[in-house]
Amino acid sequence: MSVIQVKNVNLTYRVLKNRTGSIKELFRDAVKGRVRVLDYVALEDISFSVDKGEVVAILGRNGAGKSTLLKILAGVLPPTKGSCNVEGKIAPMIELGAGFHHEMTGNENVLFYSALMGRDTNHVKNRTQAIGDWAGVSDHMDFPLRTFSSGMIARLAFATATDEQAEVLLVDEVLSVGDADFQKKSRARMNEMINGGAAVVLVSHDMNAVKTLATRAVWLENGRVKMIGNPAEVVAAYEAN
Amino acid sequence: MKYAQLIRLLVNRELTLRYKRSVLGIGWTLLNPMLTSFVLWVVFSFVFASRLPGTQQYAPYLMAGILLITFFSQGVTISAESIANNGPVLTKIYVPPQVFPISTALAGLVNFFIGMIPLAFVCFISGQQLAWTLPLVLIVGLCLALLTAGIGLTLSILYIRFDDMRNIVNVLLMILMYFTPIFYPISILSPNLQKIIQLNPLTSYLDIFRWAFSNNASVTLGDWIFMFTTSLVSISIGTFVFKKYWPRTVAML
Lengths: 241, 253
What we know:
The complex is a heterodimer of chains A (241) and B (253).
Chain A: E1 2-16, H1 23-31, E2 37-51, E3 55-59, H2 66-74, E4 81-86, E5 90-94, H3 106-116, H4 121-125, H5 128-135, H6 150-161, E6 168-172, H7 180-195, E7 199-203, H8 207-213, E8 216-221, E9 224-229, H9 231-240
Chain B: H1 4-17, H2 27-48, H3 58-85, H4 87-90, H5 99-125, H6 137-161, H7 165-178, H8 191-199, H9 201-214, H10 221-250
Helix pairs in contact in B: 1-5, 2-3, 2-5, 3-5, 3-6, 3-7, 3-9, 5-6, 6-9, 6-10, 9-10
């Protein structure tokens, strides 16, 4: 049973040619008849599926559409055409700590971030201490986040995001959080979640990580799927390109 | 509802964060309308106080106006900005984006109710009693929250699309403020001007609020109808516009 089902997804951004950022400019251009809408195709005819326990890596150059694809999987961007079905709880590990606020304490941030991910905060309340311990910031949890170092924030975010088993993990280059010790710990936890039956979509430029972690790889180029299959083969073809 | 907990956290954050680094903390919510009203009272009471009809008192009249317009204009500006400000979250985690403007409107509602404590105090000082119609202020608050949320939802889309929108909105809000009888009695205006002021829905909200709170204004059935229709129309337009344009707008965040 596939957890993620992407079928013929297209995504087109509508861009105004003279990038009118204000009503004043739009009015000026409309009067002169200079408003032109361009369609920028970010993704075209993308189809693939991810099963339980599978790790799919997405490769491609900058601007190939990897992040756009992750946004569609996260349900943030609706596709222009096609359909994207994701079943179960999603743990979006994309720029972790996006919902963090610097004036709120560590505890409050953990609660808030969990609520953003749609978790039951009554349950999370009993977990904040454990999350802080795991991230190694337990003695800071009652202080505002602005007193944290950036590494501490990243660790806390990772700990919060992975505290509950999710059915779907969307990962955007977050395997390199914190120092060497914490990286080992976070990798172990990722493996735990994968073994717990999560379907993983991973965007990475780290080819070694792709080869060791992924069970399948998708190579995107200019918004289209160039190759899909065994990670070793796809990585080899991608690097030869 | 799955996101009720999130809305509660957001409302809480909205209420406490603004005064997080101050000594008085949430006490400012009580003090702020009192101080503003006091300044305006000192300035305007000589001019306008004697022009109010019957047993109406100027101090609670003024303060009710300040409370209501603060709720409205702060609610509209903050909720309109809330989507753009939370863009980093909204492009990474799926959350119904409407929770942000709605939480802002709700936080404004809470502030509005807190502000009624000093208002009651001012009523007693100026020799008025709270009216038996007091519970009706709940309805005024709810209608105003709907009005605010509706306008905020519509504007939040425009704020993302156009950079100069917030300047335009600020000017419009200021004009609207002068077209609402906050610190002047409506009776001092010429009949034609009075008609224009009556077209402003906030005039009806404000009159109903003053009347319900301490019988400090007169209200017609038309005011009630105007209040209900504008709040419902506003929230319907807001949700419709938002639903329609959000998919295209989110790509711009």
